[in-house]
Every structure is written in structure tokens, then in C-alpha cells.
Design goal:
392 residues, alpha/beta, Rossmann fold, Dihydrodipicolinate Reductase, domain 2, nine-stranded mixed beta sheet
């Protein structure tokens, strides 16, 4: 098994590579990144003879495709802005592919993947990714599904990397067309901070108000639960309290539009300037609480009665009591581990379909849950009668 790790020097992708070293049995793992210094640091950190570094600039499509050829799977950790190009390279190289984001640019490569007989699964981390597995697990126990509400808390600094800063700006862009809910057969666009709902997350996170975010689950679950009659799908998220307070203030004052401004004769988006500041400020690289928390509610009918399935996940603590989970790594490992699991399943031929696939089409929830449990990430479930009117 040969695995090509694009963007492998990133904080999250390097955790996925660590998981590959520990669990995949791969014969060759290539850390591919434009940043040679950081990439070689990852190789040194992993200290495994199967791991090597290769300098790759995804903007050079021909060279990137040539570098990928012959690998079983490309595990793509590049930022959102590059996923259309990186996926096109993977398809042309004739490899399976998987990434973290899943915001839709990958669909253009579907015909090439099909022609190559390869599969690509966009958006497989904690959310999107594991959340779809949780929703599908619940839906499989119901005759009909009325409501799916997905929520998560991502407890990490607001700007510990350029990619995370980009995600923040993207998700709260007021002009973003992809911030939608699925309601009564329609995708309805909503603004930032829409439909607030208090979500109870497991300790140590507690209750937080969450808002609609533009994640892939809304569209993928609408497709894959259509046969169950689903009427409402909402995806919410939150970051640490101070992060949310800052984003709210920036939104209220118009900064999240990222208008172009001229500073000292240099034109740039105002959020680019703020993001650059935060990446170099202690406030942007630190937070009080680290980790990840998923929460999924699925309501529907079974044998003439209504049920609510509530699923949530827990992980080793970030307080340093468990090796390799302290501080920020409690966040980055949560996101990186599912990516690695998906990459290995693709490389082993466990996904027989070809083309660009949703996580629901590619993977079985039980398989993913079992692999997560091996790493100390546990999925919990509570089932109870639901007397609330549908859609209430």
C-alpha cells in the first residue's frame, strides 16, 4: 500500500500521517508539501523508514500529477481554496482520493474518476465525515426520518494556521451561497448566525449556542436520506466562546464581507489583514479549551411510534494525562484520524464504487465507529420516545 499525503506538513494532516504509521501497515507514506522545511520536520518527527518527503506545489499540475502516479490513494490535506485543483490532479493521476473539506469543487472531476475506475470521497474528518456516519447509523434504525440536526464544537485557536483562518473567513462570509438548510424539499439559504439553538455537548464543553454553518452534510444527507422522507436537515457549529464573540463583532461591523482596502499602497481583503495579524498574535494561537465534540439528533418513525436518536462522541482529554493528546493536539488528532481511516479503506479497495462519492455512499458507519474506537474516540447513543410534532 502506497499513500501520498498532499499538504502533509499541515497540523491536521501530520496527525493523519501519524495514524497511518501506527495503523495502516502501508509500505510507503509520502509527505508531499510545498514547505520543505516543515515537511522534513514531519518526517523527522515520525522517525519511520516508510516515510519520506517530496516537495510538491499543487499549482504545478503536470508535476503534481506525475508525482502522484502509482500511489494507491492520495490523502489530501490542502486548504479549501485548492481542493478543486488538487482533486483534478488526483483524478488525472489515477489514484483514489479523500480530503477534509468537501465543499463541492471536487464534483467536476467525477467523470475522470469514473473513467479511471477510482473513488474520491470529499469531506471526511469529524464534520463533515464522522457526522454523516452518525446520522446514517441512526436513520438505519428508523422506518422514516423527519429531522436531522447535526452540531459540533471545534475547540481550537481561531488562527493557529493559515488554513484555519481561511476556514473561518469562508464559513462566515455573508455572501456565501452554500450556507443552507434543507427544509420541505428545498435548500434555503440563510445568513451567518441564523437559527440559534442551545446544544448540550459532553464534558468538559457544556452547553453552547450554535448557528447554521455551510457544511456538506446538509446536501449529502438530503441525497442519501431522500428515501426515508427527510424534511429538515440543519448543521450547526461553534468555536470557543471568545472566537465566536470576535466573529460576531466582525460580522456586525461588516468585516466578514472581506472588502478590498488599500493599506500603504497595497490592496488586500480586510480579513486577510486581520487573519495575518491573528496568526502572529498570542490571542490567535491560544484558547482555554481544546478538543472536539460532535452531537447528532435524528427523529423519525419506527413501527408506528416516533423516536429520537441522540449520538455524541468523546475523546481522550487534552489536559496532558494521555500522551499525544495534550492541548491543540486534542483538536488536530480528532480531525486527522478519520481522514486516515478513510484513506486506508480506499487504498485497501473497500470502496467498490467509482467516481466522486459522499461519505454515506463510500463507508459503513459500523466500520468507521470500530476504527475510531481503536484510537480512543467513542460514539455514544441514546434512544428515547419523541412526542414532539414532526419538524417542531
Amino acid at each position: 500500500m502506497r499513500i501520498f499525503c498532499l499538504g502533509g506538513a499541515g497540523r491536521i494532516t501530520r496527525e493523519a500521517i501519524l495514524d497511518l504509521v501506527a495503523f495502516s501497515g502501508a509500505a510507503e507514506i509520502t509527505v508531499a508539501d510545498v514547505n520543505e522545511t516543515a515537511g522534513r520536520e514531519v518526517v523527522t518527527w515520525l522517525s519511520d523508514s516508510r516515510v519520506r518527503f517530496l516537495k510538491v506545489n499543487v499549482r504545478d499540475r503536470a508535476a503534481t500529477v506525475a508525482a502522484m502516479r502509482g500511489y494507491d490513494v492520495v490523502m489530501d490535506g490542502t486548504p479549501i481554496a485548492w481542493n478543486g485543483l488538487s482533486t483534478a490532479c488526483i483524478a488525472e493521476a489515477g489514484c483514489h482520493g479523500i480530503n477534509l473539506n468537501g465543499f463541492g469543487e471536487e464534483e467536476a472531476s467525477d467523470p475522470v474518476f469514473r473513467a479511471q475506475g477510482k473513488a474520491c470521497v470529499p469531506g471526511f474528518g469529524m464534520t463533515p465525515g464522522t457526522t454523516q456516519m452518525m446520522a446514517m447509523h441512526a436513520a438505519a434504525q428508523l422506518d422514516t426520518v423527519d429531522t436531522v440536526r447535526i452540531s459540533h464544537g471545534a475547540y481550537r485557536p481561531i488562527a493557529f494556521s493559515a488554513a484555519i483562518t481561511e476556514t473561518t473567513v469562508y464559513e462566515y462570509d455573508p455572501r456565501l451561497p452554500g450556507r443552507v438548510v434543507f427544509e420541505d424539499g428545498l435548500f434555503k439559504q440563510v445568513p451567518p448566525f441564523a437559527r440559534p439553538r442551545d446544544i448540550d455537548l459532553p464534558a468538559p464543553y457544556g452547553t453552547a449556542t450554535q448557528y447554521i454553518i455551510p457544511h456538506a452534510e446538509t446536501r449529502t444527507l438530503a441525497k442519501n436520506l431522500a428515501g426515508k422522507g427527510v424534511r429538515l436537515i440543519e448543521v450547526r457549529g461553534t468555536w470557543p466562546r471568545r472566537n465566536m464573540e470576535l466573529i460576531r463583532a466582525l460580522y456586525d461591523w461588516g468585516f466578514m464581507r472581506n472588502d478590498r482596502v488599500s493599506v500603504g499602497g497595497v490592496e488586500l481583503g480586510i480579513m486577510e489583514a486581520i487573519g495575518a495579524y491573528l496568526q502572529h498574535a498570542p490571542e490567535g494561537s491560544q484558547t482555554e479549551l481544546y478538543g472536539y465534540a460532535l452531537h447528532v439528533e435524528v427523529e423519525g418513525g419506527r413501527s408506528g411510534s416516533r423516536q429520537r436518536h441522540t449520538l455524541w462522541h468523546t475523546h481522550p482529554p487534552s489536559d496532558g494525562s494521555v500522551p499525544d493528546w495534550a492541548g491543540l493536539r486534542a483538536y488536530t488528532r480528532n480531525v486527522g484520524i478519520p481522514l486516515a481511516i478513510g484513506a486506508v479503506l480506499l487504498a485497501r479497495g473497500a470502496v467498490p464504487q467509482a467516481g466522486v462519492l459522499t461519505p454515506e455512499e463510500a463507508f459503513a458507519p459500523a466500520t468507521i465507529f470500530a476504527e475510531l474506537e481503536r484510537r480512543g474516540l467513542l460514539i455514544h447513543e441514546r434512544v428515547e420516545p419523541c412526542f414532539r410534532l414532526p419538524h417542531g
